[in-house]
Amino acid sequence: MSSALPGNRDLPASQYDLSTYWGRVKHSAGISDPRTLLTSPTGLDHAKKLVTLYKQGEIKEMTPELWTAKKIVDSTLHPDTGKPVFLPFRMSCFVISNLVVTAGMLTPGLGTAGILGWQITNQSLNVAINNANANKSTALSTSTLIQSYFMAVGASCTVALGLNALVPRLKRLSPAAKITLGRLVPFAAVASAGALNVFLMRGEEIRQGIDVFPVLSEEEKRKVEDGSLEIKSLGKSKSAAKLAVGETALSRVLNATPIMVLPPLVLVRLQRTNWLKQRPRMVMPLNVGLIFATSIFALPLALGAFPQRQAVSAKTLEPEFWERAGKDGMVEFNRGI
Question: Tens of pLDDT along 282-323?
């Protein structure tokens, strides 16, 4: 993100009001815009140069070109490291990376091998995305990464296979209801394992804490811009880490809900029509199309649920931060996405 580039002058956080849900949704739509993936290395360097010139005071006002540069930088660079996130694991590639996997999990009539294969593939992708976009102020060891991966895969496969075996045994349900519930089994597996995946992959943050910073007054911001004041971390907070990881896990569930629920329910209804019965080869294209259309809208709605750069009262954190907070007793931290 732009905060990782050199310069003391901060860019406006967004073109939109991030204190409101719809403002964050519009901002998230920019960060997750797949068109930013088409930016060449030269284009990224140009965007970074423009943002740096603004932060160093050589560009005085925000312009449409500078807003575009900020969008490219924010969707490409990690806010803690300043390095590009590996392309398949960026939020701007989230819909594309998950499309094939989600379509595979929602394929009607999967056997045990198919369920296991797609759940393992999905959790592998989740591990990569969660690790690439996590708060990097606390390092995650390789052994912890491997352990978390196998626990997440085990959880998702257990839920998927368990529910898949349970649904046919529900004798009081009609055949149509059993079909509908069967189509929702992947959602239960993805939602539960997805949330667990976030906690496992970012468990080190909860155990060690993440960096928190004081919220600056307008006068302090001016001092930072002219170089007379340097802002350093107040320390690591476990309470902030629990909030950050918990909100990220919830946003994953919010994102999975419409994607894993709406397409299979719509497809069940469409499969009852004569048109689709006569064209069984259209089931897969329709499934993929429904997933893609739902994903495009669902991701910004889920990402906008919570601010990425979050400000909270220092009183909600450990006592060591109570007397060291910034403006109005507030501190802030990077939640991760």
Answer: 888 888 888 889 988 898 999 899 988 889 999 999 999 998
Counting beta carbons within 10 angstroms of the beta carbon of residue 191, is it exposed (0 to 12), middle (13 to 18) or buried (19 or more)? buried
Buried b or exposed e, range 17-36, using 16+ CB within 10 angstroms: ebeeeebbbbbbbbbbeeeb
Statement to judge: residues 79 and 98 lie in one domain: no
Domain termination residue (choose one: 56, 84, 112): 84
Distance CA(116)–CA(87), nearest Å, equals 26
154, 127 contact by CB (below 8 A) = no
Claim to verify: residue 262 and residue 180 sit in the same structural domain? yes
Q: Is residue 131 part of a domain?
A: yes
Q: What is the CA radius of gyration of the chain?
A: 22
Task: Judge contact between 331 and 234, C-beta under 8 A.
Answer: yes
CA–CA gap between residue 6 and residue 90 (Å, rounded): 22
The verdict on residue 191 lying in a domain is yes
Among 47, 65, 84, the domain-final residue is: 84
Element (H or E) spanning 28, and its range?
helix 21-31
The one-letter code for the residue type at 73 is: V
Q: Is 80 helix (H, G, I), strand (E, B) or coil?
A: coil
HSE-CB of 67 using CA atoms within 13 angstroms? 9
Residues 201 and 128 in one domain: yes
What's the CA angle centered on 95, arms 93 and 97, to 5 degrees?
Answer: 65
**Over residues 65-82, mean pLDDT:** 88
Q: Say if 122 falls within a structural domain.
A: yes
pLDDT above 70 (res 1): no
Q: Which pTM value belongs to this model?
A: 0.77
